[in-house]
Amino acid sequence: MLQRIEQATAKKGRHDFGGERTHNLSHRNFDCSDFASADMRRVDFTGASFVGADLTAAELQGGNFVNAILDGAKASFVSLEGSAFQDSSMRRAQVVGAKFDHAIVLRSDFSGTVFDYSSLRGVRCERSVFDGGSFKIADLLGAENDLCNFRGASFQGARLDGAYFHSSDLRFASFVNSKVRGVEFAGGSLVGAAFSSAEVQASEFKWVSLDFVEFDDAVLDGASFAYSQLSTVLMRNASVWRTEVGSCDGYDVASVKTGRFRDAVAGRRRKEAHGGEVLMREILADIDSFALPGSAKLRVTKMFAAAGIGSDERSDSKRGVSEKAWKACIARSSNFEGKETFSSGILKAVKSLACTPLASRREIIAGLIEDWSARMRLRRSLSVGFARQMLELEGQNCGINSLLTGQQVRELYRMLSASRAYIPETVPRSEVKILAS
């Protein structure tokens, strides 16, 4: 029966969730139920509730989860390829190592959900919330996100090649050590986001807010900032070969590298005329092999063609134009008298986000604490300032303390104890020592 349904649905050109159903389990209450390793492919779960349910390794491909509630579900290694989530809620769920390819997500809430090591290739999201979510080492090849929120989310080590973010809120999202190649950021905000040590070749940042963004040690070859202002950013040791830049008043860009990126893995320079083309072909081959939408392929092809990082340097003038623009940026970056420093600015911005009265505020704060704690060794003074802000030891209080768990409080005091000079007199050092242990 299942095979017949799959064939009929494919023949009609419908999505997996749009064909005939194997079962109708709509509006059922499955709270705290055990469906581990269950086979429930192409089932209609409209309006069903799975709060706290165990869906570990369950097969739910092509499922219809319209108006469904899956808050707190244990769904690691679950298979949800081709499923539909519309007006659904899956907050604070564990979806580690799951398969979410080609899923459709519309007006749904996934705040605080963990998608680490999961496959989300070709996912299409619109007007949905992933605040404080975790996508570490996840694969989001060709994912399309329109008017979505990823505030305080983590994409550390993830692959986002060929992805698209339109008018999305990515404030303080972390892309550290991630692959962000051929990605289009159009509109929205990346305030406070971190791209340290990320590969950002041939990506475009168009009309995006980039205040207090970190690009330290990032590979930005062929990226375009022509329509976004590079103000109050960090680009220490970043590679900007053929990187387009418009308005540039960035902080600390004096150490950028305008030459071709030296491949840290291979230990040699990419071939002069073919390095970018090889990378583009590899991404396009993956898009084809996973049957992703043609829009992803067109986007990657367009971005790499515009970047020109696969063309012959000797017959291309883009490198010279790029180097000239970056020299002007470097000259301006040394004079910031009277301007707000990066450190104070980013701390004010993160406090502002944490104080914003959002439904996902608790999840955003949790995501921020986890990310800043993980990078404490690299930004110790900033981490101390962040901890003081979250513990509301300075400035105006906005109720952050009431949203913190005991573990989060201990972690923040551990960050404080990294520098005794920043421990306030109101906090006994003996208490800090105990909490940090």
TrEMBL record:
It comes from the Bacteria. Residues 1-20 are annotated as: Disordered. Keywords: Repeat. Coiled coil: none annotated. Pfam families: Pentapeptide. PANTHER family: THYLAKOID LUMENAL 17.4 KDA PROTEIN, CHLOROPLASTIC. This is Pentapeptide repeat. The lineage of its organism: Bacteria, Pseudomonadati, Pseudomonadota, Alphaproteobacteria, Hyphomicrobiales.
